[in-house]
Specification:
Two copies of one chain form a homodimer. With 170 residues, chain A is mainly alpha-helical. Chain A is 59% helix and 5% strand. Chain A has a two-stranded antiparallel sheet. In chain A, β1 and β2 form a beta hairpin. Chains A, B: This is DUF1993 domain-containing protein.
């Protein structure tokens, strides 16, 4: 299976799904007559990141997965978002960035090495980076964002997490 | 990257990490003088599965990932666990099952089709099953289990989720 298939369709879909959760969060806030901005500061534990940061981290690990495996410099996002409109815009930008990668971008990536900025002198192979760091981190932060919403009564369900499947007829 | 590398090392490691969370949950219960069994029934939303079921689902998606991609029948686990010892035993059995797969077990798996029991007549290619269903579900349930523990004050951190990385020197 190509690295493109492992990265581009699943991650662009996940970021599309996240926008659905945002729509449902706004519906819930409207129904319960509270400011949806309240949810951006919600968290599951006092020493864990709030929803806004979980969404920023989801974007980061999505763009890092594509960029680092392909050996490109990802666009910088300095975590300055404060509103739903701003974080939604970032999700869209990152989704379009990930979607822009073609199979040719990943040619030779099996042999690429990804240096780890937080461990000077150490690195992972690009495939190991994808499967031991980028994907676990991506799903960790996306699921935590989903869990914060669900814990706060937003009507998200498993289908909104998994999204559409690339089905075939038997 | 081989399907073996995408499945066996990351999933066996995740199940190893889950046992670390269980140890930390027991430490927390001991320190706060409550019965750790209380945590098995904890949940983040009234209509979401409790911790015990999240751990059972984590085991299931781990064993399904290996078995279905390799075209084997996974062992059955009827969700009868009620205690920490029982769910810990299941995690170990599933980890050993996943660890038992060799690269040869995945030969030809790129062309395998995985029927979907909940969608009669429909299927996914084995690689799509892995990346659009098994891994998102696995990380969803594992992260939700982690989130339930963290929400309840257990001292789990990100390093306990990600675990050891297959590092190389630069």
């Amino acid at each position: 299976m190509s690295l493109h298939s492992q990265i581009v369709p699943p991650i662009t879909k996940l970021l599309t799904n996240v926008e659905t959760w945002i729509d449902l969060a706004h519906e819930h806030a409207s129904k319960k007559s509270f400011d949806p901005a309240v949810l951006l500061a919600a968290r599951l534990a006092p020493d864990q990141f709030p929803l806004l940061k979980q969404l920023q981290a989801t974007c980061d690990h999505g763009k890092f997965a594509a960029a680092r495996v392909a050996g490109k410099d990802p666009p910088k996002h300095p975590d300055t978002e404060q509103t739903w409109d701003e974080i939604r815009a970032r999700i869209r930008v990152v989704r379009e960035y990930v979607a822009s990668f073609t199979p040719a971008d990943f040619e030779g990536a099996e042999q690429r090495i990804v240096p780890l900025s937080f461990m000077p002198g150490k690195a992972l192979s690009a495939p190991d980076y994808l499967h031991h760091s980028a994907l676990p981190n991506l799903y960790f932060h996306a699921t935590t964002a989903y869990a914060i919403l669900r814990h706060n009564g937003v009507d998200v369900g498993k289908r909104h997490f998994i999204g559409a499947l690339p089905l075939r007829d038997l």
